């Protein structure tokens, strides 16, 4: 696998995580450099780790993972998206309640988002098991590319946040749900093309 292919694979796999990072940057009241680093680290770690897990599991569980990966991603992203919309509604009902930075960046939520956006990387890792690739450098490349894009994504989201003001959490929740629907749609279209 050539360098260009590795880079393109890394960018392709990082797109969902990048979009979610932009969303988090929009919705956080204080998107500091440390928070940007933390979000990028989580996404980069999971995005780099999942292909290795997929490669390790290999062909044994390929059919099981490919059958449900898109549904898992849709469920997790929709759950977080709906939670964000509901919290935005509650904040509008109780404007006197202030949220601290630590409360806004919940580690559990960050892990769920990291898993949801890296499930496709798990499936790609399974396909790597059938290729003659050096998996460790490949996974490191994917993780680093994801880290860089997500760090930038949070910064971009921070700039966009004031544009949407009070609606940023609602917009962010809707974006997460749409990303989940898009993952499901891509999987459905792929199956349709395979059958025809």
Automatic annotation (TrEMBL):
This protein's membrane topology, according to the annotation, is: Multi-pass membrane protein
The keyword Cell membrane is annotated on this UniProt entry:
yes
The record, for PANTHER family, names:
MANGANESE EFFLUX PUMP MNTP-RELATED
Biological function? Probably functions as a manganese efflux pump.
Q: Which HAMAP family did the record assign? A: MntP_pump
What name goes with this protein? Putative manganese efflux pump MntP
Q: State the family it belongs to.
A: Belongs to the MntP (TC 9.B.29) family.
Q: Which UniProt keywords apply?
A: Cell membrane, Ion transport, Manganese, Membrane, Transmembrane, Transmembrane helix, Transport
* TM spans (from-to): 35-59, 71-90, 110-131, 138-160, 166-184
Stretches assigned to coiled coil: none
Subcellular localization, as worded in the UniProt entry: Cell membrane
InterPro entries assigned to the protein according to its UniProt record, in alphabetical order = Mntp/YtaF, Put_MntP
């Amino acid at each position: 696998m050539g360098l260009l292919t590795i880079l393109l694979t890394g960018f392709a796999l990082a797109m969902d995580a990048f979009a979610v990072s932009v969303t988090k940057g929009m919705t956080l009241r204080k998107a500091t450099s440390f928070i940007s680093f933390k979000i990028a680290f989580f996404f980069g770690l999971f995005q780099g780790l999942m292909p290795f897990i997929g490669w390790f599991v290999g062909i044994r569980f390929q059919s099981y993972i490919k059958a449900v990966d898109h549904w898992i991603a849709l469920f997790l992203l929709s759950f977080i998206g709906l939670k964000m919309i509901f919290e935005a509604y509650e904040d509008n009902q109780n404007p006197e309640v202030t949220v601290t930075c630590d409360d806004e960046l919940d580690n559990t939520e960050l892990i769920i988002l990291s898993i949801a956006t890296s499930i496709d990387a798990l499936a790609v890792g399974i396909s790597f098991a059938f290729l003659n690739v050096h998996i460790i450098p490949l996974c490191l490349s994917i993780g680093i590319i994801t880290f860089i894009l997500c760090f930038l994504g949070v910064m971009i989201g921070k700039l966009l946040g004031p544009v949407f003001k009070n609606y940023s959490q609602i917009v962010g929740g809707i974006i997460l749900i749409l990303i989940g629907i898009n993952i499901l749609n891509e999987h459905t279209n792929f199956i349709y093309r395979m059958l025809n």
